[in-house]
Amino acid sequence: MARPATGQLIAPKGKAKSWAIRFRAYGKRHHVTLGKPEDGWSHERAEAELRHALADVERGIWQPYKPAPVEAPPEEPTFHEFASEWFARHEGDWRTHTQTDYRWALSYHLLPWFKDHRLSQITIEEVDRYAAAKQREGVLSNNSINKTLTRLSQILEDAFEYGKIDKNPARGKRRRLKAEERSRPWVEPEQLLALLDAADPYARPVFATLAGTGMRPGEALALPWRGVNLATSTISIRESKTSAGVRQGDVPMGTAEALRELKARSSGDPGDPVFSNRQGRRQTKRNIQQRLKKAIDGANSVLADAGIEPLSEEVTPYSFRRTYSSLRASRWIDAEGNMRPGDDPVYIAEQMGHTDPKFTFRVYQRAVKRRERLSGAHLEAFDKALQWAATGRISPEPAVPSLPNAALIQGMPG
Question: What digits encode the pLDDT tens for the residues 291-328?
């Protein structure tokens, strides 16, 4: 006959802070810790637990306690991993221009800085450090840097909602740089050739003329062939909104070449409009604006692949006035490696038909300083635009360097 199971109580004593029971079961001695007095364990409760355990041993149903396995918490994703999933998750909801703009902000600004950070490592301090570094680079304006911070906040807001971080460190106005005075968006010189390449044959000579002469869109569209002298590379502007706008302007070589090509495929009668549609009638501002938007869509994929900020959808034909000022004001290096000075601001103001040269002086100062801060793809594309304007020629390479598409998951361009 089997001997009945026996056991004993072990009261808290010394280093042992808990009640416990000890008994034999199935040929082995077992020690089970119950709990501390402050958790409600007493002599009576421990004694009852021992009786229950011994009864289960007698019935053959007692099982040694096995703690439930603790699952290891999933590894926290990096910003690169989470941002790639975020982009793929929302991409179908965005227009093509938005996709291009967001991919540029991620591929060339946010991911190079944050890609190896675990989400919890992106702190307020780190966000501010990123913004300050972008300011020191001098390539992006404060407004453009703020655009990338808004993308960062969008991504981290998803991470917050999914419970992967406790708060969104990029949220709020305090993380943004001081906004610059909002002005009409324009085509930067490094964006110009990509835009001209993407324009259709009817729009390209218009954009080349606006960027190369600084004419107002209405002045250019009203221009007849009798007002264009390709032998002297000048134009005579007779229809303008101001008296200062009635003027004779110089035509740089890049624009002159575009006008020669246009004249070769048109009647070229003195009274005909330089810029006509398929029916031979003068093109309208609305028509040119529509063609510009199509060209922007085509140019932006090229610019984004090169890491250059995409063109704003708010760019209008009038925006080329600022482009012209930047091209004429910028110092640059010619094909022989010689530094060429920019044009005098007074000359630029006269060419644009300005009654007040203050705007020209502001653009002049910005353009000179800005080119000195550029490097890599931005500087190369900037100087190609200057070369086109001055000589009508660019080297056989594309307007912006061909770089691999920035694959968010497979790695970033160096």
Answer: 999 999 999 989 988 889 899 888 999 999 888 888 88
Element (H, E) at 137: helix 124-137
Alpha helices in 168-284 (DSSP H): 189-198, 204-213, 217-221, 253-264
Whole-number Å distance between alpha carbons of 227 and 234 = 8
- Is 12 found in the same domain as 55? yes
Helix (H) or strand (E) holding 30: strand 28-35
d(CA 340, CA 306): 26
Stated pTM of the model: 0.65
Question: Which residues form the domain of 276?
Answer: 189-391
- Total domain count for the chain? 3
180 in any annotated domain = no
Vertex 103, ends 208 and 100: CA angle to 5°?
40
Contacts of 94 (CB under 8 A, 6+ apart): 102
pLDDT-based confidence at 158, cuts 50/70/90? very high
